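Please check both lines for our workbook:

___
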Amino acid sequence: MSTPLINLKNIGVNLGDRWLIRHVDLSLHAGERLALVGRNGAGKSTLMKLITGSVEPDEGSLWVAPGVRVAYLPQSQFIKGIQTLASYVGDSLRNPAELHVAEAMLMKMDLDPARLTNTLSGGEARRLALANALVNKPDILLLDEPTNHLDLPTIEWLEARLSSHQGALVIISHDRAFLRALGNSIIWINQSTLKRRNGAFSEFEEWSETILTEEAVRLSKLDKKIAEETKWSRQGISARRKRNQGRLRELASLREVRKSEFNKAEHEFKISSGKAEAGGQIVVEARNLALSIPRENGRNASVMLVNHLNLVIKRRDRIGIVGPNGAGKSTLVRTLLGHREPDSGYVKAGIGLLPAYFDQKREQLVQKATPWKILCPDGGDTVEIAGKTKHVTSYLRDFLFDDFKMTQRVHSLSGGEQNRLLLAKIFAQPHNFLVLDEPTNDLDLETIDLLQEVVADYDGTILIVSHDRDFIDRTVTSVLAFEEDGKIQTYTGGYSDYSKKRKSYASKKTVKRVKKTASKPKNKIKDRLTFKEKYLLQTLPEEIEAMRVTISSIEKKLSNMALFQEQPETYQKLAKEVEGLIERLEQKEQSWLELELRREELGEEL
């Protein structure tokens, strides 16, 4: 292999009471695109800062090849002072005389070079930071959550742009679809150590599960040996004390190893949504809805966001909302919740509606309050979760808050910690309508996985705004898409289905414009659903639901590590069974989706 651009050897970072990362070896070569994953706080951002040289290791060495250019996009970036965007990016140019290069990069990001830095929205500021990182064509490009605050069209453009990057690329992201599209190697920080695997990010799940299973087996064997040695030490030890001192020292050593492993083990993040409260079949109804906002630089003018929307959300609907930044997604959500009045039309809430709203700006969190106070605003030390009383400290520990963090001011918490706190707050209240506006920002992949499982099991109604394509695919059954001139179109399925149908529709429109036919076909018979297709459309949903129940039951059994240790053959049999069920479930879901799309295209009723 060619000479590496950078090499880290036996690197360690100590936090005083523990090692954040230790014994880290890493080399980066041109053309490598690494997906850097791990829990929040595992040390991912610190590793990037080590590569840039902004953080010094407590042990080990760092070597950078001569002339290598490193660019770093931090998770959040402070823009000091007020200047034009061209000037801001121009300050990063190796050759200040090439200001046109900075302007061209800004134009690619759909940003006006003459605009001032203090006029940018969150998404625009993120695009500016990306332009700043990309402008010098760095040899090593480090991106920490690059998709945060970006809309889907910009994310897809960025994917295409980064796929042609010639240097090394390291990405921290909660966006699985983004990592799948770009990553050709995986770096996993787990329990202070770094593990690497060459291959697509889609292989991460299986690879990491194998490692965790092997680790569980190793610890189980260690526990068994400690138990056996402890039993031995208590049986006639006085008679053999002198000649068995070495064995006793070995037992003490085993206990120290086990204690160390226990201290390294990460706490488990737990979320429980509880059962949805009772309510009517109609959750929210919107009729002839129109929404607009004032135009930034115009008098008596406005931008139409939503035009003549008719929408009925029913109990147990699972709806995703997608569209560009500024299209009006959050405005629509707030209007449906009654937090904003429409320009015209009306919104009517259903009987017994109890919404739980995760707002992306986290305005529900009082920044000067503590997590304890947020959950117990009227005093006390308990919360009610799914009908059961729980101490607030125990509940906060489920959301990975230690005792120290529970009494810290909210403004001192990280973005991920504030998101977890807001999730804790909304799940601690009665609800039957779960509304999540960009819930995955600042969360790690493991937390997103758990949130997705909770949403999947929730028996109430779901409304999700997200730019995370994978999360939308996993959680919703229909999509509301913002299109031109304030129109909102409904699509069946998740984001992938919406994207395919949108491209297909655009392709058909193009063909219709250019295709000329000499004459209309004669005696054309209208395509219709067959009796079998109609029957499957009616029966498949019940079959799918029954299979989901069976899969959930088996997965619950598999989550019990005692079964793995005591009945390994039964465990393997169940694991193989659930794998087959999941495959058949996906096939049935795909069959139903294809039939439903066909029914919609034909305009037929069941």
